Queue: 2 jobs
Job 1
Amino acid sequence: MARDPLSPRCADCGIRHRAVCSRCDAAELARLEQVKFYRSYEAGQRVVWAGDEMAFVGSVVTGVATLSHSLEDGRVQVVGLLMPSDFVGRPGRETAPFDVTAASALTLCCFRRAPFERLMAEMPHVSERLLEMTLDELDAARDWAVVLGRKSARERVASFLASVARREAKLELVPPPRPQRLALPLTREAMADHLGLTLETVSRQLGALARAGAIALDAKRRISILDPARLAAETGDDATAA
Amino acid sequence: MARDPLSPRCADCGIRHRAVCSRCDAAELARLEQVKFYRSYEAGQRVVWAGDEMAFVGSVVTGVATLSHSLEDGRVQVVGLLMPSDFVGRPGRETAPFDVTAASALTLCCFRRAPFERLMAEMPHVSERLLEMTLDELDAARDWAVVLGRKSARERVASFLASVARREAKLELVPPPRPQRLALPLTREAMADHLGLTLETVSRQLGALARAGAIALDAKRRISILDPARLAAETGDDATAA
DNA sequence: CGCCGATTTGAACTGCTTCAAGCCATGTGG
DNA sequence: CCACATGGCTTGAAGCAGTTCAAATCGGCG
């Protein structure tokens, strides 16, 4: 496992204003800087195994990771996507509840778990922000339950693309150009495992959305959103016409 | 809406050792006691509408509530069950993200939102416990995604029964008798909306589990778990034989 | 150039939904 | 005290969305 691929000062960090540290002042950042360290992973590498002891916690700096659970017979469910600024691991838990896997090249800003927990007790800014982020993730996880429990294959794929586009747009400082082009962070198989479908069905529905003019398949892992309103309509969420 | 059906002292409260207040000392409890108030709802009553302003937050004292989201065309997904000691509402959010509905007769121990937020800032015991509870709920929500995304109808129904039995057992002080008898907190329709199935399929799978000897259908809303190991095997989670 | 993994496409199958009765307990008014 | 609504539940039969299995195509990369 490669280490320390970069070591910028916190003040210059790309996720400075969105991660657990976002509410920290300069003095607090200085304390974090002392104990933080970076780790990098290649696409496909496992970061954490479910059930293993979590030696560290941290934030995604660049890249995307999946949180997933596997059943004995090989079925897999991707229960969450971790994008830049998202937090990995949890204070107060010894073992990881889910597998964490790098979906693309990934860099984490890490802290050893025990020291981080001690810091949290002294820095309410961090624990407040972590509570806020956790509540947001809980809402997101419950929103995803609607997708998994009640939506058709077409709606699931459209919902996924819409949510990736939304998160991508939020990370950028300037509004995205139209048409919005985006790199899909997952393979067809990982998408299927996230959407509760088979990879064949995902492929067919992507094709169908392209034929319908909502999107264009630019390359295997790259699409353009030609008609955002149409895509939104295909999610099944909202009859709100634009 | 009925109010103040009961007003026990916090020290005697049934959820004293599990709810947000579980870490509070006597002095802190006294502060909460000053501002708390009870609300009761009949089965079927709506507690909160999604999108509405949340005037209060609180804990389930008795009864069960559902958290759900409805799509325009009438599809419904129950994204969570709220059992005694679970927390309703969230500090730092003006509007409710989901509908909250009483599934049975329900009593909440409430706090007006703004004063509660102020209290939280002064009582780290409360915010720590809330973070812990939120992290647990997040894990539970993600575990449920596995059910919705990857399990068959049979496995979903078995998983639901197993999870209700587990939570029920955890609330009791003494281990449950064998066979464990339990009151289903939801109608067939609400179960279906939780499991991402139709009510007919739920009914058929309950019948099938009974025919297989895993459970007995004692009454419409009441079952016995005759063979816990068999039921566990039917969930699809674990090939661990007993 | 030729291999390999990822993706697309095709065709048959199936588990769940859909639509439609029927059942059972409870309650209500004549 | 019975006739008859009413709401939750069960049962049946037909249809279909998505899976499964299989094969073809694409796109990198050594």
Note: Chain B has a mean pLDDT of 92.
Job 2
Amino acid sequence: MGTETSRPKISIVRADFAAVARLLASPARAAMIEALLDGRSLSAHELAAVGSVRAPAASEHLAALVRGQLIRVRPQGRHRLYELAGKQVATALEAFAQICPTTPVSSLRASSQAEALRSARTCYDHLAGRFGVALLDAFLEHRWLVRSSPGYSVTASGQRTLRSAGVDVNALKRQRRVFARSCLDWTERRPHLGGALGAAVTTALLDRDWIRRRPQGRGVVITPAGKIGLSQAFRIEPVS
Amino acid sequence: MGTETSRPKISIVRADFAAVARLLASPARAAMIEALLDGRSLSAHELAAVGSVRAPAASEHLAALVRGQLIRVRPQGRHRLYELAGKQVATALEAFAQICPTTPVSSLRASSQAEALRSARTCYDHLAGRFGVALLDAFLEHRWLVRSSPGYSVTASGQRTLRSAGVDVNALKRQRRVFARSCLDWTERRPHLGGALGAAVTTALLDRDWIRRRPQGRGVVITPAGKIGLSQAFRIEPVS
DNA sequence: GGGACGTTTCGGTCCCCACCGAAATATTGC
DNA sequence: GCAATATTTCGGTGGGGACCGAAACGTCCC
């Protein structure tokens, strides 16, 4: 370590919190990026609606977010689809959300829409709502997961169950991200499954077409095939 | 899961990114909170200097940060000492920093000051500079730590070595925080030790008075006792 | 008590930025 | 080519907030 050989001149740097924070400080931009947190790609038109602004304002907001490396754009025909610049952005913002206050969303007048959300939806990139809670309940009840110090850890039988559903637990453990964490469900007030495992299960269920995203919003529906598959794989009866 | 008993009315909430982001969006406030990230308590007077503003502006900034629950205040005589509101704030901002660009700091004209920082300093709550890098080098060289998927994991001999230095590895593993991560050193361009272990080692060395914080800034000095202790405990020769 | 110092409140100025409408540019489908 | 739609650029307006100096309030120490 005492190697005092010729070293390039000192350059001390510091993280520029303010630059990125300024990007999130606008309600319109915050809403846009929050809508992208679960990994979807949305057009400028859709994101304008998300941010409650007109197209011109949305265009400038999106350009700023791209400049700040938080999102990237993928032109597709006359649309331009925006998505998160990388998984690290989602991870960092998920952590950031831990110190953010929560505000009630009162814009769900239609109770059928609220009910659909409450039944099953995504929370960033994992499953929430009654379905998400039920899933975690099943995992714990069958001892596929057990409480561990940061979140949960998977048992041998859990690993087999997950493998049969197309989830490679060992690959997940190699991720930097917290393996399996508890995430408090806002409608159910009980925990659902987050972290790398929560995201992987969601991806696997989407891949098998056991669940599908509703066209807009965060709602999720369970397909007829899903009802059968879920009851066989995880021994749960999906909620109505 | 099918327990459809009488449930209170639905309340859907969402994280308000914008509210907290607005607090970090001002360069003055960002600098202030960054200065508090390593756990120190600083007075309003000192934080005004950190943020390069006069006392009135600093006072308003600090009031806003307190209102936003990012910091808390502890009156002490005619001073008011400000500190982070909790460890979760430090953890969340450490993650947030991962997606922030880094800007060079050119205000270190006095090369002796720059040299001191380059020698040993804290990076948030763990050790950096030549000393921090040397520490990680020693841990890897003696195989007390080995590369693992998220960061590093400790070996049996490493655990013994750390215990003799006053660090309880098992207690650290129970923390939610990433156990031991690699953090790129800005002056050395090589990794030093971050995460829960990095913080715990720093605390242990401060407790034994092997290192001391310089009165201002992030610099750290190694005490005479530290030179002896460090060479015995970790088999490293501290940098000049 | 009185001076010194740390901190906050108040009043006022200035600038940045978020927004819009109108118009320009790009792409699709007929 | 032409109409329709998606997106961006431009010019201009308005509001919020970041800052300062002056002054008020609190605390310490002689």
Note: Chain A has two domains: 17-97, 111-233.
